[in-house]
Amino acid sequence: MILWILIxxxxxxxxxxxxxGLQGHSHWGNVRWIPFYLESLSxxxxxxxxxxxxxxxxxxxxxxxxxxxxxxxxxxxxxxxxMLLSVSVELIQxxxxxxxxxxxxxxxxxxxxxxxxxxxxKVSKGRREVLREPEGAGER
Length: 140
What we know:
The chain is mainly α.
């Protein structure tokens, strides 16, 4: 889980130095505040959405699988954790010339983590049903 968080941070904040890397000043004017803004609909935009979803699906999956018990609030927790990680990464991107922080990224990251949590929950339920003894199996 920690390794995947590191992968997310590195993949979404590189490069860190040089003319293309992080700067000592912010670029709030580059922030795309309106999520899924249709004027920016392009192949690159759709690819960015798919990449963000795929980057956060393992985060949600690994979080759920790392839990000893699965409470009903697990989806709320993973959504909040994904939002916290995503907002942190987007804030780092505010200080980059090459990165464009956006609300679309935050939304798709949370959706991706939730998708991963749903997959993990279904896998866990399936495994529990396989491990459970059939009715009347121990009565011979």
